[in-house]
Amino acid sequence: MTRSIISCFLFCFTGLFATAQQVLTVEAAVDLALRNNYDIRLAKNDSSSFALDNDYAWAAFLPRLNGTATKVWNNNAQKQELANGSKRDTSGIKSSSLQASLNLNLTLFDGFKMFATRDRVAEVEKLGVLNLRNQVVNTTAAVISNYYNIVRQKQQLKAILEQKSISEERVKLADKKLSVGLGAKPELLQAKVDLNAFTASQYQQNTLIEQLKEQLNQLIGFEKNASYEVMDTIPIRADLTLDEIRTDFENQSPQLLIAKKNIDIAKLVLKERTGDRYPVINFNSAYNLNRLTNQAVINNFTPLFNRNLGFNYGFSINLPILNGLNAKRLQQQARIDILQQELLLDNTRTLLDVQLNNAFRDYELQKKNLTLEEDNILLAKENVFIAMERFKQGVSTYLELREAQISLADGYDRLIAARYNAKLAEIELMRLKGMSNY
Asked: Are residues 295 and 95 in contact, defined by beta-carbon separation less than 8 angstroms?
């Protein structure tokens, strides 16, 4: 059902918006990114490449079969002087030879290296899947953050327009008071200056929104200058707990899973290096054909036609005795790499723990700020209303009204920032855990 809705949205989107701009939901934006984002598509290609290698890993257990064939034509001139004094001088001696062989080689034992290689290729495929999952999680977080940043700036634009409306009312009142001799011109000028400032902020805010939309377009694979609207609100999950986030964190965080998978791969590399120190036993077999044809000979004992056809088989063993201690060096390096990957896992676990704790503290802080600012904005609006009425009745100065207006503007800034920062903290918590369905 969701896919159908998204497909319908895309169809409408490409219809040049004949009637009105379509609203792009955050779910649709994420779905588009999962299909079109370049980083995700590159990660998918890498994962597909690793999967292809694993699909053919079983071929390491198959014998190697090679065929060769050679055909040679000869045209020789021959001159001989024998011990009995006779001489032979012949030219145009033509001959041809055919050599063909079919060779089979099967490794029977190589210190179990082939099994370790097969397992390593399978683990590398799993690593590719984890890297893809990690890229999906990061891209999803980036799309949602960018999307709600646009919503935030829309809310900021709405607040600016509200402030602009108050300034327009101030200009009208100041002009009216001046026209009847009850006001001063600096009061009118200041109201116009404030109005122009909010107008400039409006222009700047519109530009910022368009710039953020271009960034979102790049993330989700839309054409540049694509026109659409976003939602007006930023929903906040207020029920997240640290225990809920930590539940099964070890088995869900892509970064931890990638670090663990690198350890598994490093251990298999050590098995491969250990296999280099064992003898290699091969089964070998060949089917050979040699054929020689002479059109003429100068020696009666030289055959005009000769053919050898045969089959052979046997075993060979390659025993490493001394190779400059290279096998031992590679084995030691593989052990060091295991220790390195284990240290990286511990480091990743520590960093994620710090990031998780800090993100949750920020999440809790922003929720408190949001609650405070939601109450505060009501007070600021009431204060502006009272100041405006007092100014209309002539019992307060424009400075009092302007101060109330500034307080309202600051309140909007803090409220909008608190709501967006709370959402960012929520997104970061979900990203760290590796959840992409938020």
From this structure: yes
Please tell me whether residues 230 and 308 are part of one structural domain: no
pTM, full prediction: 0.82
Element (H, E) at 101: strand 87-109
Residues 295 and 369 in one domain: no
The whole domain housing 406 covers 27-36+110-278+321-433
Identify which of 188, 92, 93 has the alpha carbon closest to the alpha carbon of residue 402: 188
Reduced to 3 states (helix: H, G, I; strand: E, B; else coil), residue 396 is: coil
Q: Is 102 left (phi over 0), alpha (psi -120 to 50) or beta?
A: beta
Number of residues that make up the chain? 438
Q: Phi then psi for 229, rounded to 5 degrees?
A: -115, 160
On whether both 301 and 217 belong to a single domain, the answer is no
The first and second tokens of residue 31, run together, are: 């779905």
Do 271 and 289 have their domain in common?
A: no
CATH code, domain carrying 293: 2.20.200
Written as six digits, the tokens of 130 are 């984890």
Question: What pLDDT is attached to residue 20?
Answer: 54
Residue whose structure tokens are 């070998």: 284
Q: What sign does the dihedral 90-91-92-98 (CA atoms) show?
A: positive
Q: Three-class SS of residue 405?
A: helix
Q: Are 416 and 174 in contact (CB under 8 A)?
A: no
- What's the confidence (pLDDT) of residue 65? 94
Q: How many domains does the chain have?
A: 2
Shared domain check, 185 and 95:
no
Mean pLDDT of the chain: 88
